[in-house]
Write a sequence for this structure.
């Protein structure tokens, strides 16, 4: 009997122990205190839009392809750059900058010279044919004129003949005069026909000569020189890629490089389309330049593009934003990359929480409010965010405490 009671007590003791362990594991205070917390506080809050960019000059002088290469009549749509001075090279007006591949131009020049020879021969033949043909027609007119003189003499002599003979000689004279008029008209027509033929041949010849001269001049212009003193900065071609050796330039993409005015440097940033509505002219900007990692620069938005452009590799559009930059006497140069934090809103005192304390998605956000029991899932309305914090408009009050991590169980 004692053994049975002893076993029963042992069972009761075991069950009690398990219940006690479960109580300590699952009691509400354990859930509440299992994570870090933060108190809701008021404080200054700044909303910023981040945009990467590049230093560019508002004013610059272009180093372009030769003007003759822009002539579409030459039908040269692109030439490769075979040599180009290093970017950043300081040049003076007239200094060498680049060389364009002459192969295509020289090939067209050779063909144009062949055309000149062909059209010269055609012109000479047209002139010779005209001379021969018109001489024959002029001889016919001379003969017709002599025939009229003979007929006039006959008419004069027929005064002493019968009326019939007089009438016959008069008719013969009239016919001779008509024949002369016909031959003169024929000569005039032939003169006009040969004139048109010669002019057409001469026009082809002159056009070919002009093309030959332009191509000859273009060959001499394929060594590109600087139009002014300054620093060479490579231009950007199709797709925003920098022009370099082996790049194609032509009438549709004429700029090889630029000579920037270093007193007009700005940060040219690309703002994503989802953020562009927040950006306004005059907003302040904090600028970081990769070349000066220990320096922070100040700037201001001065221009916003009206039309967006695709951002490579993102599947979305972006808008160019120009930011005036205070260089702080640093030697800032074109093409340096920048990080631009545009201040789009600045509040002196707002309820704020760390970003990690707020859960949910773009449309629904909530926090886990700490209480004496289980944490309470509380929906909140936010009004903007920055890199570390979110602004709280409604849902919780100052000095309330929320969890920084999602609890395993909550009500």
């Amino acid at each position: 009997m004692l053994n049975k009671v002893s076993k029963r007590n042992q069972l009761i003791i075991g069950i009690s122990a398990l219940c006690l362990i479960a109580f300590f594991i699952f009691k509400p205070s354990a859930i509440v205190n299992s994570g870090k917390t933060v108190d809701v506080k008021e404080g200054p809050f700044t909303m910023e839009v981040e945009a990467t960019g590049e230093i560019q000059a508002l004013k610059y002088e272009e180093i372009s392809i030769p003007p003759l290469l822009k002539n579409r009549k030459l039908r040269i749509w692109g030439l490769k750059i075979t040599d180009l001075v290093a970017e950043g090279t300081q040049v003076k007006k007239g200094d060498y900058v680049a060389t364009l591949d002459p192969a295509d131009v020289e090939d067209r020049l050779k063909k144009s010279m062949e055309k000149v020879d062909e059209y010269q021969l055609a012109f000479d033949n047209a002139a010779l044919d005209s001379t021969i043909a018109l001489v024959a027609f002029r001889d016919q007119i001379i003969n017709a004129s002599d025939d009229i003189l003979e007929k006039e003499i006959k008419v004069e002599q027929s005064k002493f003949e019968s009326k019939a003979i007089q009438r016959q000689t008069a008719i013969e004279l009239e016919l001779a005069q008509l024949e002369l008029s016909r031959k003169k008209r024929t000569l005039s027509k032939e003169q006009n026909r040969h004139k048109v033929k010669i002019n057409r041949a001469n026009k082809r010849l002159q056009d070919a000569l002009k093309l030959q001269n332009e191509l000859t001049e273009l060959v001499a212009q394929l060594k590109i020189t600087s139009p002014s003193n300054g620093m060479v900065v490579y231009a950007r071609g199709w797709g925003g890629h920098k022009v370099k050796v082996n790049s194609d330039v032509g009438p549709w993409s004429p700029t090889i490089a630029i000579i920037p005015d270093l007193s007009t440097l700005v940060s040219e940033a690309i703002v994503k389309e989802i953020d562009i509505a927040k950006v306004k002219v005059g907003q302040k900007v904090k600028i970081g330049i990769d070349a000066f990692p220990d320096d922070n620069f100040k700037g201001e938005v001065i221009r916003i593009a009206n039309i967006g452009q695709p951002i490579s590799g993102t599947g979305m559009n972006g808008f160019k934003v120009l930011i005036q930059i205070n260089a702080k006497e640093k030697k800032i140069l074109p093409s340096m990359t920048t990080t631009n934090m545009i201040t789009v809103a600045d509040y002196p005192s707002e309820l704020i929480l760390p970003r990690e304390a707020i859960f949910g998605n773009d449309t629904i956000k909530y926090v886990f409010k700490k209480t004496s029991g289980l944490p309470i899932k509380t929906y909140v309305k936010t009004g903007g965010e920055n890199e570390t914090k979110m602004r709280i408009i409604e849902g919780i009050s100052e000095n309330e405490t929320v969890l920084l991590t999602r609890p395993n169980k909550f009500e």
About this structure: The domain at 37-53+262-403 is CATH 2.40.30.170 (Elongation Factor Tu (Ef-tu); domain 3). The mean pLDDT is 87. The chain has three domains: 37-53+262-403, 60-101+222-258, 106-220. The helical segments are 2-26, 28-32, 103-157, 163-221.
